[in-house]
Every structure is written in C-alpha cells, then in structure tokens.
Amino acid sequence: MNSAIEKFHELEQGVLGIVRASDVYALHIMAKIRNTEPDMAGISSILSGTKISGLNLAGNIYTKSELALLEKEGHFTNIGQQIIVATHTALESYLILKFREYYRCLVSSSDVTLIEESLKHISFRSLEDFKKLYKKFFKIHIPSFEIDYHSSDGCNFQPKNSWEALELIYKARNDIVHKGGSVEYKVASLMDSWYPFEFVRNWVASFDVNFDSYIYHNKETKLIREHKERANRCGVAI
Q1: What is the per-residue DSSP string for the chain?
Q2: CA angle at residue 132 from 169 to 237, to 5 degrees?
Q3: pTM of the entire structure?
C-alpha cells in the first residue's frame, strides 16, 4: 500500500501532465494573439517533461491588455479549472491517507481489525472536517500551520495566509464541480492554476516532514513550535 506522500506524488504527476498540456496549448494561443510563431523549441522541452514555460510563472510575461483579453475570452479558464480540481483531489487524498497513518500509529496497541473498523466511521466531507478531526485526534490545528509561499503580479492567487489558500482552493473546486465554474476565484491566465498547485505541493511537503517528526518521533521543529504558538494566540488549545 502506498503511503500518503507516495500517493500524493503519484497524483502530482497527473496534475503535471495537465499542466504540460495546458502549457503547449497556451503557447499556441499566445502566439496567435501576438501574431508570432509558436516557440517550437519550448514546446519540445515541455513535452519532454524538462520545463514549463514562463506563462505559468511571471505576470510580466503578459501585457495588461493580454491579461484582460484572456479573462474576457476564457482561453485558459476550462483547462485551468481542471488543474484546480486535480490539485484539490491530490490534496484531499493526502490529508485522508495521512490521517489514517497517524491514527494507526497512535492506536497501534489496539486490535488491527478494530482500528480499521473505527476508521470506516471517520469521514471527511469538507475542509472544516479535516480542521476539526486533525485537532481532535492529533492536536494539529491546520489553520495555524503556515508555510512561506509566493505568487506573481497579475496572478489572481493572492491569499493572505496558508489557511486562506486552502479555503480558496476548496471553494474553487466545489464551485467548478457543482456550479460549472469557479465563481469568486478567477482562472484567466496559466498562473491562476499554477500557483495554487505549487502552493499545495510545498504545503504538503512541509506538512509531511514536520508533522511526521512530531507524531512519530515527538520532535518539535521550528514550524511545529510556530504552529502551536499561532494556535494559542487564536485561543486554540493544542
């Protein structure tokens, strides 16, 4: 059975496949908008899996008029929203599997059948469920776990903190799945799907390393101590 982080990396590769497809499509669209030839060398590198284009990363790649046109025409909206959905799927899978790993560790002295049966009765229907159950069982207050991250000028992904970023991704995913499109979060350029994905990759990697140290070895890293201090300031006892 794959571990939570192994399963995440497997799903991550699937998201990267969609990113590469959107990147190739975007290079053709932008070439058409700019009345230039597509960057075939860049496309070759993308298809070989060795790079992604700057269209994902830097707002200064686009002019203001191009960003406005992309939002109006929605060239990258549908495929970008699918990247958001796939990113959410990878994140949710990780959080469910990681919960099960930590749960099995903490009740390892119990009967295995009883452990697995009890896990069947723990369900996650929303981000709030993860928040509540991680705190209840492991004293992990997800809103208080903060990582460093960045975006780019011209990108719509500008959360104030890590919890707001997670909420944004969950709400966008729910809107896309249930309403046919993201309502509040606008996916116009490739940056608007890349940076949520990149945030989740970094958040999961940091969460896994830091809380594995805490749960399995009872060691508090700098981020764990900051997580506890932040929770205490919010009046959350952990």
Answers
A1: ---HHHHHHHHHHHHHHHHHHHHHHHHHHHHHHHTS---HHHHHHHHTTS---GGGT-GGGS-HHHHHHHHHHTTTHHHHHHHHHHHHHHHHHHHHHHHHHHHHHHTTTS-HHHHHHHHHT----SHHHHHHHHHHHH---GGG--------TT-S---SSHHHHHHHHHHHHHHHHHHSS-SSS---STHHHHHHHHHHHHHHHHHHHHHHHHHHH----HHHHHHHHHHHHTT---
A2: 120
A3: 0.92
* pLDDT tens by residue, 120-134: 878 899 999 999 999
Two tokens at 116? 């697995």
Can you give the length of the chain in residues? 238
pLDDT at 109: 66
DSSP 40-97: HHHHHHHHTTS---GGGT-GGGS-HHHHHHHHHHTTTHHHHHHHHHHHHHHHHHHHHH
Token couple for 31:
């070439």
